[in-house]
Queue: 2 jobs
Job 1
Amino acid sequence: MRIREIKLTPVAFRDPPLLNASGVHEPWALRTVVEVLTDEGLTGLGETYGDRSHLERLRTAAPALVGLDVHAHHAQYARVAGAVGTDVFVDQHGLTGAGSNQKTVDAVFSPFEVACLDIRGKAAGLRVADLLGGPVRDAVPYSAYLFYKWAGHPDAEEDRFGAALDPEGIVAQARLLVGEYGFGSIKLKGGVLPPDQEIAAVHALRDAFPDLPLRIDPNAAWTPDTSIRVGRELAGVLEYLEDPTPEIDGMARVAPEVPMKLATNMCVVTHEHLPPAIAKGAVGVLLTDHHYWGGLLRSTQVAALCATFGLELSMHSNTHLGISLAAMTQLAAAVPNLTHACDTHTPWQQGQDVVVPGALRFVDGAVPLPAAPGLGVELDRAALAELHENYLRCGIERRDDTAYMRRTDPAFQPKRAYW
Ligand SMILES: [Mg+2]
């Protein structure tokens, strides 16, 4: 079965003003929906970033895949690598670590690979998780992903989540998300306020949710010394401490000095980072992400490497829609050593999506593996058209949290080893 055509549709959807070390989310989040059509009439879906430079690379790579068999994983990868050449993409917000050529190839390849697996599953009557070795769990647990946030975007009405700028606001947000989704673990995006205020928020969460695992992720906003101090102050409170400080060497300095494991989706983001990170003992938990680890199959290979070298696994999330959630769920269901609840931005989508509702739902904080073959989701063409119209009208072509923050706070600087 051969690839006949590939359609790329950039979309935009409303995003609340979520704060992070780089600034604040803009009113619109961008994604690209990938449709791979075959000569036998089957269509597969993928979803990836919507930044213009990434979209242009997708547009360059897509024609190189036409004519290849949907099963020809390695040939597809080679074609994408050839199309990307020596190009290096570095995200503007800086929240997913340094750019590299391999990471760029992996990120461009990923949505095409996911779409081909969707097709292969549909053709065989199997779920993608079956193609990845078979599910080891029927439902994939996700964490409540909390953010400091403004009540609403500047010059806009307050959103349904309201403000969260202190421990009380964070606890209220957690109660809302845990109440609506049943999440069984909690992650706080930090790096926004001085560390002592974020420590207080974590303690407030511990008091409010004594039984739920807690994590904080300041996106490398702290120095190694501050990371060690915070880690020691949160002894016995955190499940893991995510990217407290920049770079493998910084993490390696902190890791032996704190009582919990360090996790990362910033200092280990492609294969070339694994050997030094492992040799230096920099991290104990890898947050994998198929969007930049080269798709689902290659993510299972990374998972096997982690098992070999004693790294635990969790899963990273960027703002996403239902195709990505389906792919994340299929992958997580089929990775035995993914023992931590995955991150997801789903609650912040507020129901906006490009897939037909119903296939993906949260039960006690977990997404049951959809029963239908492939990814288990269908494209909602009317919704896709509407979100594409948003893209054409919104005037945003790349995510830039820092520039958006500077419209409110002209002196704002991204926080890297800042505190
Ligand atoms: Mg992170």
Job 2
Amino acid sequence: MATGAKSFTFLLISSLFLVSCFCAKGAQNPVPIVNGLSWTFYDYSCPKAESIIRKQLKKVFKNDIGQAAGLLRLHFHDCFVQGCDGSVLLDGSASGPSEQDAPPNLTLREKAFEIINDLRERVHKECGRVVSCADIVAIAARDSVYLSGGPDYDIPLGRRDGLNFATQNATLANLPPPTANASTILRSLATKKFDATDVVALSGGHTIGLSHCSSFTGRLYPTQDPTMDKAFANDLKGICPTINSTGTTVLDIRTPNKFDNKYYVDLMNRQGLFTSDQDLYSYNKTRDIVTSFAEDESLFFEKFVVAMIKMSQLSVLTGNQGEIRANCSVRNSDNSYLVSVVEEDLETKSELR
Ligand code: HEM
């Protein structure tokens, strides 16, 4: 073969190799994946799982884009307490009040739980009981980011659903309050191996969604937090006239429904809603990271994806651990009727194959 033809063949082969590398799921992922999770987990058992979820969420968000924020927060609250095992979805039982009953979870959206169970029903109808509720929550959070204008990215799958929910104390201990300052938040998240860049990036989840007055009125009454912009504080006082007001307001005043980097611009203008947000700009270890994300949205997206993939793998159950719930709100052993119906259905399906 002539040298020109040889080098052309070499170029062609190497570019094909590159293309296949970058097209493969997770190929560009900079985060190591946990044993038992995989980029191709449902490729044979439920290849349509992710497309069913995305298609349905597009419909849901067309009616109400606010639900995207509810689903993103649900994944965060699932993963931080006892790992991403769907335990936040479990209803309370004789063993005690559920994670849902713990104070930080009282403001999770009722509708988010309904959406997850609906997605579970659609996916199980297609494939049988093979996809876990914990994976559905993780996929729904990823899609919420993308469908609100944020980055699209692959997440490793194969999480199993937990058999128990965490205690109220464990829930409180693992979800820092909005009154915490940046150094407390950094210390708390360092126990889960998040560094300062991860913390600032994850807090960018507050670029969408709502908060109740009670989460921030401590910054308005009895004395106004001096780090808060005066006009912003006045607007908030209009929405929440007393410390016990029950109203709600947006987390990102610039673009409340769009997943972008404007949350960091808010912080630079002293318009962060919570102490835990605003202090990221006051604190010397995080201030420059906030500025860099405010100046460069693609840098924020890149670091957000890294931190989300890390978060989505916290203490996951895999392999034979846990179970695949037939109803996301109830563990299978408390739900024998539903499980046996689904199992019969699965048997019929495999007989038909
Ligand atoms: C770092 C510590 C964090 C604190 C202290 C915190 C605190 C809060 C609080 C108090 C609310 C409002 C609750 C209410 O009053 O209704 C909220 C909402 C929200 N949080 Fe966080 N959060 C943190 C991290 C995160 C992370 C890591 C994410 C996701 C990546 C996230 C996503 C959201 C979203 C999307 C909402 C709006 C929910 C809705 O509209 O229903 N938060 N957060």
